[in-house]
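Extended Data, panel c. Modelled sequence:
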Amino acid sequence: MMKRLVPTFNRILVKRVIQPAKTESGILLPEKASSLNSGKVIAVGPGSRDKDGKLIPVSVKEGDTVLLPEYGGTQVKLGDNEYHLFRDEDVLGTLHED
């Protein structure tokens, strides 16, 4: 039976992207070169409410690649996979392919 985690409020579930230690041609990369903290959004909550009760939606959607802070988030393990829960405002930005 597969477990599925649905975030509450303005939280997002992210699977961190592990940067490769070497290029496709076999060149080893220094540890500092691959330190971009990014992740793929797996699930999003419905959003939070303002003081009038209006829904403020989450700014990212499932499938987005996001830039994450170096520290923070709550680690969650589901089966063999490791995820992190972040608040929407903790996400530093989204990454887009040109």
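The two ends are 39 Å apart (CA to CA). This feature is highlighted in the accompanying rendering.
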